[in-house]
Each structure stands twice: as structure tokens, then as C-alpha cells.
Amino acid sequence: MKTGKLMLAILMILGLAAVASAMDKDEAAHGPTAYVPESTSPALVVGQDCTQPIVISSLPANLTGQTNCGMGNTYSSTCLGSYDGGEDVIYRLDLAVETTVDIVMTTSTTWTGMLLDDNCPPDASGCIAYVTGSGGNKTLADKTLAAGSYYIMIDTWPAPNCIPTFALSITEDVPPPPPPANDVCAGAIDLQSFESNTFQVDTCAGYTNNYSAGGSTGCTGYTSVGQDATYKIYLQVGETFTIDTVSPHDASIWLVTDCANAAATCVAGADETVGGQHETFSYAAAATGWYYLILDGYTDCGLFTVTIDAPVATESLPWGGVKAMFK
Ligand SMILES: [Ca+2]
Ligand SMILES: [Ca+2]
Ligand SMILES: [Ca+2]
Ligand SMILES: [Ca+2]
Q1: Nearest ligand to the C-alpha of residue 208?
Q2: How far apart are the CA of 245 and the centre of ligand 4, in A?
């Protein structure tokens, strides 16, 4: 008899352990779900359900002092899973044109969930986006939405049964302007178009990293994963192109014949110094043709002050600015 009871106790403990191990981390941390009854009274409060959502029709929207307490557990079969068992509030976002939005909910209440959908009641699965978790704050970032109406629901996995106070911010995510045309060689600026043999360019001003020199076996001895700007110059065979730059960052400067294969076609380059010092090289053209100058950085970007020393052997050729400087 005694042995039987002991075995039963052992089996029960083993059984509980198996159930516990089947829970995920969130479930284990949360504990049992509190039951929040569905709202039975007619909707009296704006935001209480899909028929009378809180309407947001212009951005940015910065709503403070928001709550879903008192709005009832109207929806509990949504894409939020366990996180829709508490009271819920519904917002409707009306967009006149396609917009990319960042939706941020801020609160100190824990175990919150926020969804974005084009249906209301929200879909049980396949919402446009949702976010849940044991913390309070929730963000749905960079959601590009066509013109139309969308619904945002904010709920909890009870307990807590509701969120006494939160802030909801919806802002338009304005994409950065495209990089300058000479970010890549297709838009390289002809050095001969400059009126002066000196110019400045800030590679931190929207430029991106497109080219990297060939490392220890390349023409500068180092990679150049910093942002880069491109220029081009047409050289006759034998003409010497000289460049001097100074910039606050660890600059890398290199000259290539084919940007599609930049590191392998590099004919000259320099990365001898670090920030605030000069980089310089001269190159006597081995062949007539276009050469592409890449103003780059070992790891980052900076404001280059560039001085070009143009060929002097071909003054008679119909070149513009740079060559004219040396007539
Ligand atoms: Ca709910
Ligand atoms: Ca670039
Ligand atoms: Ca680069
Ligand atoms: Ca350098």
C-alpha cells in the first residue's frame, strides 16, 4: 500500500515535470492565464470595438493617456494568441496614400500585445503584423501600407487584464533621399568638368559603400569598406594623373579601369596614413581610356579636400577645367 502511494506520487511529479517542460519560456514566466469575460454591454466608449474605433486620419499621431481598461474583452480569437485575452481597444488608421509607418506603443504594464490588420475583427491568423511579449513597449516599424483603412488592436495576456495607461505614436517613416549619382561609377563625375583643380566632397553626405580595395594584395594594401564617391578622367597613354587628398577620416583613394571589377582592375591607390593626414599617388596611364577615381575610407567616411594635378603633356587636347588650370 505504502509502496503504491509512493509510486503514484512519483508518477504525478514526473507528469507535472513533463507538462512544465512542454511550456515555452514565456508561458513559464507568465503563469496561468486569468479569465477576462467578454464584454456583454453595448459599446458605449469610442475604441471599445470595431464598430466605433478611435479614428486616426492624419500623421503624425501622438496619443497619450490611452487605456483599454473598461473597454471589455471584445476580441479574443486574433493573431495575438494568448495576448488577446485581456480587454482591448481598437484604433482605425485611415491612409489617403501609400505610407510607411512606425507604430509605437509605450507603457509600463507588462504582457502586452499589439496587432495591425486590414480586417476588424482582426484575423485569427495572417494579420499584417503583430508583436507580443512580456515587456510593455511594442513597436511595429517600417510597415508600408497602401491607401485604405487599417486597424490596430492593443490587448494583454491576462493577468494583467488591461493596460491602465499607454501612449500610442504613429509616425510616417520618411525614407532617406537616394544617394548622390556619383555614389556609383555609373554616375561618376568627370573631373574635367570642374572649373578648379581642387574640390571637396563629404562621403558621409548620403554616400554608400559600393567598392572595396583588394586588401593586403590590393593596390592600397587595405580593404576600404567605408562609403565611397566616384569620379572619372580620360587619360591618354603616358599622361600622368596625380591626386592629393586630406580628410578627417582614414581615407583610401584608388584608381580603377573597371568598376564592375574594381579591386582587380585597380592601377594605383593609397592608404598610407590615418585620419587628418594626406593620401597621395601619381599614375602614368598605361593605356588610353577612362579611369575611375574612388574616394573611399578604410572603415568610414569624411570630408575630403581633393587636389588634382592634371596632365601637362597634352595641353593642346580639348579638355575643360582641370587641364586648363595648367595651361
Ligand atoms: Ca481581448
Ligand atoms: Ca559609393
Ligand atoms: Ca568603399
Ligand atoms: Ca588612410
Answers
A1: 2
A2: 10
Number of domains in the chain: 2
CA distance 41 to 46: 14
Percent of the chain with pLDDT over 90: 77
Q: Are 213 and 224 in contact (CB under 8 A)?
A: yes
Measured CA to CA, the distance from residue 125 to residue 115 in angstroms comes to: 11
Looking at the structure, do residues 190 and 319 belong to the same domain, yes or no? Answer: yes
By residue range, what is the domain housing residue 81? 31-172
Of 67, 63, 24, residue with least CA distance to 45: 67
Q: Smallest Cα–Cα separation from 141: which of 189, 173, 166, 112?
A: 173
Ligand 3 ion: residues within 5 Å (CB):
209, 211, 224, 228, 296
Which CATH number characterizes residue 209's domain? 2.60.120.380
The pLDDT of residue 304: 98
Closest listed ligand to the CA of 272: 4
**Nearest ligand, CA of residue 203?**
2
Per-residue pLDDT of 235-253, as tens digits, reads 999 999 999 999 999 999 9
Start-end of H helices in 91-224: none
Let me know whether 204 and 290 are in one domain.
yes
Identify the domain boundary among 138, 172, 206.
172
- HSE-CB for 226 with a 13 A CA cutoff: 28
Reply yes or no on whether the pLDDT at 289 is more than 50.
Answer: yes
100 within a domain of the structure (yes/no): yes
Shared domain for 60 and 152, answered yes or no, is yes
Ligand 1: distance of its center to the CA of 88 in Å?
5
Q: What nine digits make up the cell of 1?
A: 500500500
Q: Which amino acid is at 11?
A: L
Q: d(Cα 272, Cα 222) in Å, to the nearest integer?
A: 9
Q: Minimum-distance ligand to the CA of 207? A: 2
Q: What angle do CA 251, 252, 254 make, to 5 degrees?
A: 145
Report the separation in Å between the CA atom of 285 and the middle of ligand 2, taken as the mean of its atom positions.
Answer: 24
